[in-house]
Design goal:
The chain is an alpha/beta fold and 337 residues long. 60% of the residues lie in helices and 8% in strands. Strands 2-3-4-1-5 form a five-stranded parallel sheet, with helices on both faces.
Length: 337
């Protein structure tokens, strides 16, 4: 079942009695679970609730499901991270599939799982009898719409370009974005519109965003800015080796994105091929023009040389990365020893 269809049902007060919510975007999983609960409470404030977490015996879940609510019209049963939908609990999974058709109409059974194996009989049974909803990571377009809608609900306007800047700064994880939007709403106070300057002033940059700022400085040949970004990350207790690893990753992304655009591939295809979120493509494209393919390949080679020398003890991690930045930015003047 698609998320949009589930949301449409809940908006109309339509509640089923069997759900499986799963996927990478845990914020959405929790959001839909709480929305189902809210819809049930709107119909009957006295709804009862049972919660099972972890490796709970199926018989205990079945007992809770089959026991009719007392002095209430409905009963909610939440089962979280049961591992019933992945390999390892075959007998329990089969037992679950056997009793699912007998769920009383008074009970709303909601499974909240991180992973599922869609080949299992219990998964197929929920697809047949209820609603199995995969909560995947959202596209840039959907995230921008969500950001603008959420900020509007807080009485603030955020233009699409500014919402995109928030994504570039904070990443695409909805839980983190939700926290940053709360901070932004408080920070701007009586002001109605959120600006990019507000984002830079109050929001917490992801490591990936800082690395993009670093590689941008590298592409511009701006050594002071690149070294300042590196010093800031060190002050934030980031490991020099992790920073080097991320530089390698970002340069590789920029090279692959550059090659993809030269082949005239659509952006969504490039994102899929490279294995990145589509909003990262925009950042990579903005940096790609600052490098030639040869510069990127040479820089990646210098990164690998630095990595080997650090790991073999020929240089300290911090000095190694500083020398790398100098060598990449001014190759005619500096070489890595």
């Amino acid at each position: 079942m698609e998320q949009k269809k589930l949301w449409d049902e809940l908006s109309k007060g339509v509640i089923g009695n069997l759900y499986l919510l799963y996927g990478d975007e845990r914020f959405l999983v929790r959001h839909y679970a709480s929305s189902i609960e809210k819809a049930a409470l709107d119909q009957d404030p006295g709804v009862l609730k049972d919660i099972f977490e972890g490796n709970t015996p199926v018989k205990d879940v079945a007992t809770a499901v089959m026991t009719l609510p007392f002095l209430a019209s409905k009963k909610l049963v939440f089962v979280k991270d049961s591992m019933l939908f992945v390999a390892g609990r075959k007998n329990d999974s089969e037992a679950l599939a056997d009793f699912l058709p007998d769920i009383p109409e008074e009970t709303i059974l909601i499974f909240i799982e991180s992973e599922v194996d869609k080949r299992l009989r219990c998964f197929k049974k929920i697809q047949e009898l209820g609603r199995a909803v995969e909560c995947e990571s959202q596209s840039t377009q959907d995230l921008v719409k969500w950001i603008t809608r959420t900020m509007k609900g807080k009485g603030k306007d955020i233009p699409h370009a500014t919402a995109s800047a928030l994504l570039a700064t904070c990443g695409g994880e909805m839980e983190k974005l939700h926290t940053e939007m709360e901070k932004l709403a408080s920070y701007v106070g009586d002001s109605k519109e959120v600006t990019p300057d507000d984002i830079q002033s109050i929001c917490t940059q992801t490591l990936e965003s800082r690395i993009f700022s670093l590689t941008k400085a590298m592409g511009e040949g701006n050594a002071p800015k690149a070294l300042k970004e590196f010093s800031t990350m060190l002050a934030l207790k980031e490991s020099p080796i992790m920073i080097l690893t991320m530089i390698i990753r970002q340069l590789r992304i920029i090279l692959l994105v550059k090659c993809g655009t030269e082949k005239r591939l659509p952006r969504h295809q490039i994102a899929k091929d490279v294995g990145i979120r589509d909003f990262v493509i925009n950042e990579a494209l903005s940096h790609a023009a600052r490098f030639t393919n040869g510069q990127l390949v040479r820089s990646l080679g210098q990164c690998m040389e630095t990595d080997i020398k650090i790991k073999t003890g020929l240089m300290s991690p911090e000095i190694g990365v500083e020398m790398l930045l100098a060598a990449v930015i001014s190759p005619q003047k500096t070489d890595i020893v």
